[in-house]
Amino acid sequence: ERNRKKIIGYLASIAPDIEDALADICSLFSYSHYITESERLSIEEKYFDLFKKVAVIIKSSVVDEFPHKESIQRFYKAMSDTITHKKTNNKHFIDNQTVNNAHYFDTILAYPLDQQQREAIVSLEDNVLVISSAGSGKTLTTVGKVRYLIDVQNVPAEKILLITFTRKAAESLSEHL
């Protein structure tokens, strides 16, 4: 009984932090937001200590009696596998963006973009490296991505940096943009 009260007191002391953390995590892990790797790592780092505190007591039967047990369990589940949650979230984001912007991708350039190009364009990772064979659509995909970032995601053009290996490729990109 003494141990039970101690755990309940402990849970009560960290419950507000768990609620705040859960709100923060839920705002990031929403299908309307693409989660970058830097964001995922930031969340892991930010809530690492709290996660360790919860991990120690999550299997206790006392948690089941606690009023905020759902929040504790949701927080623990979210933090247990951020990589899978990121992948699932981003797949939904990509699917939604490609469907909701189908007309945009059909008309943004001279030719409609294929599904792979559309997915590459709406994937909003921190850094993107495009490697592909000649004539496969790298330039069109890159131009489409820049236009998507500016037109749909409202990213200021001066925040976008394109780097290419040759002056010819840089001139081609500039001409297409």
Biggest sheet overview: none
Percent of residues in helices comes to: 55-70%
Structural class: mainly alpha
* Overall mean pLDDT: 90
- From the structure provided, what is the oligomeric state, counting identical versus distinct chains? single chain
> What's the count of strands?
0
Q: First CA to last CA: what distance?
A: 70 Å
Succession of helices and strands: HHHHHHHHHH
Shape: elongated
Tell me the β content: under 5%
Poorly predicted runs of 5 or more residues: none
Spatial extent as radius of gyration: 22 Å
- Number of separate helices: 10
Summarize the structure in words:
The protein is mainly α. It is built from ten helices and no strands. Helix 1 (2-28) crosses helix 5 (69-80), helix 3 (48-57) crosses helix 5 (69-80) and helix 9 packs across helix 10. The longest helix has 27 residues, at 2-28. The termini are far apart.
Blueprint (SSEs and pairs):
Layout: H1 2-28, H2 37-46, H3 48-57, H4 61-65, H5 69-80, H6 82-100, H7 102-107, H8 115-122, H9 138-151, H10 167-176
Helix pairs in contact: 1-5, 3-5, 6-8, 8-9, 9-10
What descriptors fit this protein?
10 helices; elongated; 177 residues; mainly alpha; 0% strand; 68% helix
How would you concisely characterize the structure shown here?
By secondary structure, the protein is mainly alpha-helical. It has helices spanning 2-28, 37-46, 48-57, 61-65, 69-80, 82-100, 102-107, 115-122, 138-151, 167-176.
